[in-house]
């Protein structure tokens, strides 16, 4: 399942492919809180990096955890304007998975990993497409 968010303007966009994990434990989900808001664990792919490698690297950087990546849930993209990038087109793929063990402190000091109840965070992710992906992860 794939969904497109936002409205594409007549402008040149910066495309950024990314991969994200949605770790679920009971009725809670593992997310990262930053000064901007809540985000899923993951980020943009680096050169020649697979989705799994990206998620493993980002989880270490953002939360200090090793992970086990499961099945793909969905993907989404959005057209938006970013304050430093300009016209931005993130294309994200979402996977379920588990956090295995905390092995270090996160590299990104403004990122705080939290387990949050789904009902508390539902619809409150920074990106609408990440809220949508979270809903897909919790569908029965």
From TrEMBL:
It comes from Ruminococcus flavefaciens. Pfam families: NUDIX. SUPFAM superfamilies: Nudix. Signal peptide: none annotated. Residues 14-140 form the Nudix hydrolase domain. InterPro entries: NUDIX_hydrolase-like_dom_sf (IPR015797), NUDIX_hydrolase_dom (IPR000086). It comes from the Bacteria. This is 8-oxo-dGTP diphosphatase.
